[in-house]
């Protein structure tokens, strides 16, 4: 009889696991298929580096290992993401310039992340629906752009975080050495993927300490904390040592040149940072802000019961505050919302329902707020995916056309007016080199001058040889963003006599072709944006 019950529970868990795998897979792949996102081209955001790797390999003649080592050394000048920067050139060179295998890898990373987060939430005693809401709020929204932008690091880093948390939770329940090793290893990989994920190590360390408290007890004492650390020292100490080593390296490596406060002035810097965060909450974080305030107001009506979630409140603050600090200079938007959104979903969804502080009509109202937040972010998810398809198709068609028109006439001169987005300029330049043409000039927007390109490092493209004796009117083909692109800053048509050119629209890019070059460039209309609600 006992064995039958165990088998029944096991079967139920297996069915649930199969269901969530199928559900999250459908949630991701169906959008790719329905919106035609597979095969969408370069976004001119992070992914032009893929072209750079191939230029080093195919044009500069570097071996596979030389490319990886070169990129690693260049990246280490300004960043500390060793795992990511070693794997990215490897995958790019392995699959060539066919982006679909890279898309499939990113999809697999996304699905695995969502499944592992769900399983971890369930293992910690949360209901199926609370776990589902936790994953959807944490992963769906503006941050979902990291699902399809192939040059970004956030999904893979979040995947390693989810594995770390899953293995840690399993270890704390079962005390198996295997889980301990998996958790520490995945934590190390996570820290090596992107710098802001290193700042999750205080949360991981405190999660170990407060594990018993989060299971039900509300008694937090100094003696209890020390005893908890002592009991879990074998897994707690490695987290602290590894996280601290990464932070110390960053401080020593980049701490020599002073900080923004010294170079810009403390008051100016504080004003800049606060302004960026306010802007973030007015834009990409607006739904988190609106529903967060709503959730807080409902929770405050359970004032006496809030004592039950003091440990979780501390975990939440340790999780999210460092993310706001590290992104204060740029703002917490788009892919930078990860992993903040995971911490947000943990505190406002998993914690209240697990602690059973809810009852009555207020519980239903709170639940409705979660549903509405998910629906609001689902709309954003679909809209952002559609924009990715639209922009990618346009940029890819532009790159293909520039190669084709150069084949017809190798002497033509191409002017890239994508600056100040140097990544876009580099994508056009590197793609032309890979097709055998060194005919790209760039318009440097800030300096109001034309420059030539050189294969330098991943952070520098322009030759800086001084202004050359050419004007935009001397160019045969000019490419520039139009106002459909979010990086649009200026109208390139103001730089030259448009009467001598015919303009063709390729998604978010306008292509101006001199009338003497070719009458029919074969540029097709990119399918317009479909998700406008």
How is the topology of this model organized?
Blueprint: H1 2-35, H2 48-59, H3 64-75, H4 82-95, H5 99-123, H6 128-139, H7 154-174, H8 177-191, H9 195-198, H10 201-209, H11 211-214, H12 222-231, H13 233-254, H14 260-264, H15 266-282, H16 286-300, H17 310-326, H18 340-354, H19 360-408, E1 414-417, H20 422-434, E2 440-444, E3 449-452, E4 477-481, E5 501-506, E6 509-514
Parallel strand pairs: 1-2, 1-4
Antiparallel strand pairs: 2-3, 4-6, 5-6
Helix pairs in contact: 1-5, 2-4, 2-20, 3-4, 5-6, 5-7, 6-18, 7-8, 8-13, 10-13, 10-17, 16-18, 16-19, 17-18
* Global Rg: 26 Å
Which H/E pattern describes the elements?
HHHHHHHHHHHHHHHHHHHEHEEEEE
Mean pLDDT: 89
Oligomer: single chain
Please describe the structure with a list of short key phrases separated by commas or semicolons.
mainly alpha, elongated, 533 residues, 20 helices, 6-stranded mixed β-sheet
Description:
With 533 residues, this protein is mainly alpha-helical. It is built from 20 helices and 6 strands. The protein has a 6-stranded mixed sheet. The model is unreliable at 1-9 and 256-264 (pLDDT under 50).
Quick structural overview:
With 533 residues, the protein is mainly α. 61% of the residues lie in helices and 6% in strands. The protein has a six-stranded mixed beta sheet with strand order 3-2-1-4-6-5.
């Amino acid at each position: 009889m006992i064995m039958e019950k165990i088998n029944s529970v096991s079967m139920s868990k297996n069915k649930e696991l199969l269901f969530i795998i199928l559900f999250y897979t459908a949630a991701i792949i169906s959008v790719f298929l329905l919106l035609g996102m597979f095969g969408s081209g370069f976004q001119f955001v992070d992914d032009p580096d893929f072209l750079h790797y191939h230029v080093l390999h195919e044009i500069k003649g570097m071996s596979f290992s030389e490319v990886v080592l070169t990129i690693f050394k260049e990246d280490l000048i300004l960043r500390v993401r060793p795992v990511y920067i070693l794997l990215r050139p490897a995958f790019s060179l392995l699959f060539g310039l066919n982006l679909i295998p890279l898309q499939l890898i990113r999809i697999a990373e996304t699905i695995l992340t969502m499944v592992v987060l769900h399983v971890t939430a369930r293992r910690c005693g949360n209901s199926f629906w609370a776990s589902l809401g936790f994953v959807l709020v944490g992963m769906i929204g503006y941050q979902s752009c990291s699902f399809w932008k192939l040059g970004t690091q956030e999904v893979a880093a979040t995947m390693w975080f989810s594995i770390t948390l899953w293995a840690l939770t399993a270890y704390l329940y079962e005390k198996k050495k295997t889980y301990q090793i998996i958790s520490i290893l995945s934590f190390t990989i996570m820290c090596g993927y992107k710098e802001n994920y290193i700042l999750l190590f205080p949360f991981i360390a405190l999660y170990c300490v407060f594990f018993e408290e989060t299971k039900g007890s509300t008694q937090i004492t100094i003696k209890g904390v020390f005893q908890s650390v002592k009991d879990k020292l074998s897994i707690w100490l490695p987290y602290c040592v590894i996280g601290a080593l990464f932070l110390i390296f960053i401080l020593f490596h980049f701490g020599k040149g002073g900080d923004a406060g010294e170079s810009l002035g403390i008051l100016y810097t504080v004003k800049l940072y606060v302004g960026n965060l306010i802007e973030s909450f007015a834009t990409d974080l607006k739904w988190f802000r609106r529903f967060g305030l709503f959730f807080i107001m409902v929770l405050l009506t359970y004032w006496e019961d809030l004592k039950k979630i003091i440990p979780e409140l501390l975990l939440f603050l340790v999780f999210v505050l460092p993310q706001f600090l590290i992104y204060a200079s740029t703002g917490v938007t788009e892919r930078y919302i990860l992993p903040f959104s995971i911490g947000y979903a943990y505190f406002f969804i998993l914690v209240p329902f697990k602690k059973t502080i809810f009852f009555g009509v207020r519980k239903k109202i709170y639940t409705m707020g979660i549903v509405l937040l998910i629906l609001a972010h689902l709309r954003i998810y679909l809209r952002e995916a559609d924009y990715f398809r639209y922009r990618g198709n346009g940029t890819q068609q532009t790159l293909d056309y520039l190669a084709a028109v150069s084949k017809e006439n190798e002497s033509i001169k191409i002017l890239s007016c994508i600056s100040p987005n140097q990544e876009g300029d580099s994508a056009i330049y590197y793609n032309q080199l890979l097709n055998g043409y060194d005919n790209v000039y760039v318009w440097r927007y800030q300096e109001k001058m034309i420059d030539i390109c050189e294969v330098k490092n991943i952070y520098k493209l322009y030759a800086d040889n001084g202004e050359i004796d050419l004007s935009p009117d001397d160019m045969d083909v000019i490419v520039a963003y139009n106002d459909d692109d979010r990086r649009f800053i200026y109208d390139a048509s103001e730089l030259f006599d448009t009467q001598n050119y015919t303009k063709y629209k390729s998604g978010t890019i306008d292509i101006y072709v001199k009338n003497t070059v070719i009458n029919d460039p074969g540029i097709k209309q990119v399918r317009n944006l479909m998700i406008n609600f």
